[in-house]
Specification:
It is globular and about 55 Å long. It has two domains: 81 residues; 92 residues. It is built from nine helices and no strands. With 194 residues, the protein is mainly α.
Length: 194
């Protein structure tokens, strides 16, 4: 019998969180998964970082931006334990989103641009979603800098990419990222700056 700490139980908990429609409930579920990974599976860095990335997204979606920033910063503390160079994008995304939420839009853009450069032209849909996640951060950072003309194409691309992903696989994370982009586009007002 599988217990609550079994890896298969944790995987199911994560899948349940991603299939959830309520971000607050998803945050509870993913938080439980992350805490158990941290406590019982500390050596599984990829799974922990993946889990905490969703946790930060869900926290931001329910308005807990300081919690989201702290989670992204905690992800960065795991980088030294991750020996897989293919996981670098996680840490670039975490750094960019943490800087954006800390009020450092220029630092966010600097951290996120390499992810877009590496993954945007990939033929693999999963890779392009990594780029779209980075573009979300860039678009929101450009908006914070009041550079609407730069923010607009980034945010439109993000909304389109995650709407398409959601149509194919209706995961809450896809919907939330598309919604963040659309909400930012809706709030843009005043004269555009270059």
């Amino acid at each position: 019998m599988l217990g609550p700490e079994h890896i298969k139980t944790l995987e199911a908990l994560g899948a349940l969180a991603l299939a959830e429609t309520d971000p607050a409930r998803a945050l509870e579920l993913i938080g439980e998964q992350c805490r158990t990974f941290d406590r019982d599976y500390a050596e599984q860095v990829y799974e922990r970082v993946d889990c905490h990335s969703y946790e930060a997204l869900f926290a931001e979606a329910v308005g807990r931006t300081e919690d989201a920033r702290a989670i992204y910063e905690a992800i960065l503390s795991l980088q030294s334990a991750d020996t897989d160079p293919d996981d670098l994008f996680f840490f670039q995304l975490a750094a960019g989103h943490a800087r954006r939420l800390a009020g450092d839009p220029r630092g966010a853009i600097e951290a996120l641009e390499p992810v877009v450069a590496q993954y945007a032209a990939s033929p693999a849909p999963w890779a392009r979603l990594r780029a779209a996640n980075a573009q979300l951060g860039i678009g929101l950072a450009e908006l914070a800098l009041e550079r609407r003309q730069r923010a607009d194409p980034q945010l439109r691309a993000v909304a389109a990419a995650f709407d398409d992903a959601y149509r194919r696989t209706p995961l809450l994370a896809y919907r939330l990222r598309a919604d963040l982009a659309r909400n930012a586009l809706t709030t843009m007002s005043g004269p555009a700056s270059p």
